[in-house]
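Moderator note: this is an archived Q&A kept for reference. The question asked for a predicted structure of one protein chain; the sequence and the answer are reproduced below.
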Amino acid sequence: MIPDLISVIVPIYNVEDYIRQCFDSLLNQTYQNFEVLMINDGSPDNSASICQEYAARDSRFRYFEKENGGASSARNMGIEYSEGTYITFVYPDDWLDETYLEILYTNLKKYNADVSVSTYKRFDMDKNSWYFHAYNRSNSIEIYTNKELLENLPFLATIDYSFFFSFVKLVDKKLVGSIRFNENTMLAEDMEFWYKVYLKVNKVVFVNRDTYTYRIHSTSAANNLTVEKLKSSMQHRLAFIAILAARGINIESYVQDYIGHLYDVMAVIENQGLEADETLRWIREMMYLLTFKNEE
């Protein structure tokens, strides 16, 4: 029986120094029935010619161009043109273990899940250092129903970002349906997308094994924060809490997690010396409203 086709969506922008390593790691996958949708998001460097080179070498690599609109718009275009039964997203400056697709696909099918999740390791280029999760050597498996996952998401966010980054996940395209990345969100758009997907899942399988290398460098989003990006992150988290409340889901742990996030944002603003008087005023107001209790 022919295995299912997996669509690998890769947004491309100014990654000529890294993209060959990413594409070569895809060519080396043990699971070979995949397509790579290379979405050139108006990149001004030599990325386009590299993509076209791989498209000429291997018919599984499909090349698309669009005007610059950000990674979210590129991923959305990839979803529209994808032909696979399942979808995974990859950053163009990262690379994959050779078993990345196989592990995600095998466990998704084995446990009849809608989404499979693994974890990642990090490589910091500036420090020439590797960072590994100390707890992921057991290769343990965890299964979450929709209710269990929604109850545990705030806790899972305190461990790492495996459940929230766009990568290290394989999702049934039918489940994605009309859900898309919010092209107006400037920070943590990955988290916003997966929050929406998780509202629809019946079952998620988590494989406690790093299968992906996340590259950190000076142009990474975490190193280029602005007040507008931080405000965007706060707003989409708040919107998700409102959706959960409207669906009758207990939001207490999400509110506490959000308050912690507000403290983190305040620390970033102060440590980086960002001009954000009105944003800080709004954060303090939100903290007051979320923690204030009326007298009985």
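Archived answer notes: Strands lie at 6-12, 34-41, 61-66, 86-89, 95-96, 115-124, 129-131, 141-145, 169-172, 203-216.
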